[in-house]
Amino acid sequence: MNHLEDRVRRALRADVSGVVTEQVLADVHRGADRRWSRRTASVAAAAVVVAIMGVTGVAAQLRGDDGAGPSPQPTTQSPTQSPTTTQSAGPELPPGAAQGVIDVSVVGPDAVFRLTTNVGCVACSTVWRRDASAEGGWLWLHDFEGEDAYAG
Amino acid sequence: MGTFMGTAALPGRRSGGTMAKRGDTEAFDAFVRARLAHLLRFGRALTGDEHAAADLVQDALERTLMRWSKITSEDPEGYVRRAMVNRSISVWRKLRRERLTDQIPQQTYDDPARDDALLDALRRLPPRQRAVIALRYYEDLTEAQTAATLGCSVGTVKSQTSLAMARLRSLLDDTDEELS
User: Fold this and answer.
1) How many CB pairs under 8 A join A and B?
2) Are B118 and A15 in contact (CB < 8 Å)?
């Protein structure tokens, strides 16, 4: 072993002083709790979105089964105001979404999600999340594409 | 991290949330109490800086605590070590905050036993070379064990070690010349 290797080993083995073990432990537990909370919220939100997408798929399938005849055609009518199926208390939807049918409203641990199907157009099913800072109080998350979304 | 020179009272600790069992929390705490000094020295070898080492150790321990029930039967210290190595390299890659500098960061205390010149030279190495030095000369891992920890070949470990030692020698020679 040469002199430099000796010196490196000696330097790296010198104690790191000035650390209070119990304080480190407290900081670690606090930090882990924060990480756990963030992870739980993220997983819950993802699960809700996945559930909504699953519901959408089933609903689309059912609509397809019901209309076993000719497939629905896009309408040229402009979107109209329509009643909602599961309207719950909350801020108004943005202009486009307010003209649609609220298919499902899901309350997660720290968020509220809605799936809307806008009457009178295709590819107009949308997932929203309540967000006070967003315009109209709802944050757009995702639009579904294709004729399955047609509900006119 | 706020652990240096800290004297704050230990706040109440949650037994739920991150941990399923109280016994797990106690085992984790016992592990930290037993191995913290060693982990801090390893962190200093990885970063070349005691404050950065404290941050690195806390980050790795938080990740370890969240998976404690799964890793406690294996090799928890190996898990922490890998977390520290990966984090020290990924943070550097992501942020590129580290800058090669001739200035030694101000220390909050003065330890005559500390080899400041060597630690300063260590800080000027790329993180991957520091990791090799830390694993080979602090943890005393073999070249094969070091390669396994870093996820590279033994040949890479050999070449990185050689480069790192040559660079350290050069930097320390420069320092000695400046002092003389």
Assistant:
1) 120
2) no
Cβ-contact A125, A149 below 8 angstroms: yes
Report residue A34 as tokens. 């924060």
Mutate to test the interface with B, among A9, A25, A40 (most CBs of B within 10 A): A25
Long-range contacts: B72-77, Cβ < 8 Å, 24+? B72/B24, B72/B27, B72/B28, B76/B31, B77/B31, B77/B35, B77/B39
Distance from C-alpha of B154 to C-alpha of B143, rounded to nearest angstrom: 6
Q: Report whether A112 contacts A43 (CB < 8 A).
A: no
Torsion of CA A87, A88, A92, A97, to 10 degrees: -40
Pick from B22, B5, B6: which is nearest to B14 by CA? Answer: B22
pLDDT in tens, A58-101: 676 666 655 544 444 433 333 333 434 344 444 455 555 544 56
- Residue of chain B whose alpha carbon sits nearest to that of A22: B10
| ipTM for this model | 0.74
Distance from CA of A3 to the nearest CA of B (A): 10
